[in-house]
Design brief:
Elements: E1 25-34, E2 40-49, E3 57-62, E4 69-70, E5 74-82, E6 92-97, E7 101-105, E8 107-108, E9 113-119, E10 124-133, E11 139-149
Parallel strand pairs: 4-11
Antiparallel strand pairs: 1-2, 3-5, 5-9, 6-7, 6-10, 8-9, 10-11
Length: 174
């Protein structure tokens, strides 16, 4: 038996114990209470302490500050991801726009680099969110701002007169 802490109960009679000082694995925890008359009682529980699982990390590679995207044209999204517990290829990375919703899932290689292509439909400034999720369900997010510009439409020209193949005199206004 190792004495971890000697504490007084709070106003409601509760004591708390933090597991931060316990190593991963099984532990028997016994609480002994002693009253002012030196009468005592005790209770025990067995708990298993697990290692705190760390969240993955993500760095946006593309788009970068100052980038702009044309409306409805393929645009490359790219990020680098890592996780202390999982291989990079086991990580799920999704890209979303607050204006257009889900855009794509990155195809991540063993080095943690991932890319995907998607089209942005809505003109305006998009807040692009990259979310990486590991196999334990832990997530990390990063955002980037990406302006999407309307693509200028090529004007349509129709010649109504003269008809194609017509003969016209010189110096006639058409």
């Amino acid at each position: 038996n190792i004495l971890i802490a000697e504490t007084s109960p709070d106003d409601e009679g509760y004591n708390t114990l933090t597991t931060a000082d316990l190593s991963p694995g099984a532990h028997a925890i016994t609480l002994r209470a002693v009253d002012p008359s030196n009468l005592s009682g005790e209770a025990s529980v067995t708990v298993t302490v697990v290692t705190v699982v760390e969240s993955p990390s993500i760095t946006i590679v593309h788009p970068v500050s100052g980038d702009r995207a044309p409306q409805d044209a393929e645009f490359l999204f790219e990020a680098n991801v890592t996780d202390p517990q999982d291989e990079a290829t086991a990580l799920l990375v999704e890209v979303e726009s607050e204006l257009d919703g889900f855009l794509c899932s990155l195809d991540v290689n063993v080095d943690g680099n991932g890319t995907c292509l998607s089209r942005l439909q809505t003109v305006g400034t998009h807040r692009i969110t990259f979310t990486v999720t590991d196999t334990d369900g832990n997530e990390a997010r990063r955002t980037a701002s990406l302006p999407v510009d309307a693509v200028a439409q090529v004007p349509t020209i129709v010649v109504t007169t003269p008809a194609s193949g017509s003969t016209v005199r010189q110096a006639v206004v058409l």
